[in-house]
Design brief:
This protein is an alpha+beta fold. It has one domain: Protein Transport Mog1p, Chain A (3-Layer(aba) Sandwich). The chain is 18% helix and 33% strand. The strands form two sheets. Strands 1, 4, 5, 6, 7, 8, 9, 10 and 11 form a nine-stranded antiparallel sheet that branches. A hairpin with a 2-residue loop joins strand 2 (11-12) and strand 3 (15-16).
Length: 222
């Protein structure tokens, strides 16, 4: 039995997938979780000249930290980046090479996505730019795969689109959840009766010997 498709499947692990965001329109969704637990859901978005796939999954992990720079998210980023190179031996592309890695931050300058930019070519087709980004949200991985025809401005467009998901996942401003938790944490109360400091012993300075002028000298003391 193949994956179950249906545009009604827009509520994914408590996330209502936007039907339109930054010019991209939701076309379809795929329930991979029903066939292979841990693989989650796929969301198919597109806009003129662009193709986007969003994947939300947990690989059956009990906990995934909401920190794009954590070791767990970094490992998933490396795994997904390695998968991109497999597109060449699988025959999907005749050439795949990494242009560079980059990150996308929220309004508080917190790193929210680990990303990589690729150059992709197919036989008889125009070169393409591909972008791959990973983050963590609500104990799930969130992965983006974008492709478009190669152009000098594609990375700026990809960055803008990925950033548009920050308020969707974390609310307006995309501020770190830990900051909200710390803001709700009560301040420690001061002790009502602090312990009195122990008196320090007084050191006695030895008296200086009285000055005596040597015989035959005229001395002046002050």
């Amino acid at each position: 039995m193949g994956p179950v498709f249906g545009i009604t499947s827009v509520n994914v692990f408590g996330l209502k997938a936007p039907e339109e965001i930054d010019g991209f329109t939701l076309n379809d969704s795929t329930n991979f979780e029903k066939i292979r637990p841990g693989d989650g859901y796929g969301l198919d978005y597109s806009k003129s000249g662009w193709k986007l796939d969003v994947f939300i999954y947990d690989l059956k992990r009990a906990a995934i930290p909401d920190d794009a720079k954590s070791a767990i998210v970094r490992a998933e980023f490396e795994r997904g980046r390695a998968d991109a190179f497999l597109a060449q031996p699988r025959g999907l592309y005749s050439q795949v090479y990494l242009r560079r890695n980059f990150t996308v931050e929220d309004g508080s300058k917190r790193t929210r996505f680990q990303c990589a930019a690729f150059h992709l070519t197919r036989e008889g087709a125009k070169p393409q730019d591909g972008f791959f980004c990973v983050t963590a949200w609500n104990n799930k991985f969130v992965k983006f795969r974008l492709t478009t025809l190669s152009d000098s401005q594609t990375e700026a467009t990809a960055r803008k689109f990925v950033a548009s998901w920050i308020p969707v996942l974390w609310g307006p401003g995309g501020g770190p959840a830990v900051s909200r938790a710390e803001a709700a944490r009560p301040e420690p109360r001061a002790q009502a009766h602090p312990r009195a400091a122990r008196p320090q012993p007084v050191r006695r300075v030895p008296a200086r010997p009285r000055f005596k002028c040597p015989d035959g000298y005229i001395c002046e003391t002050r």
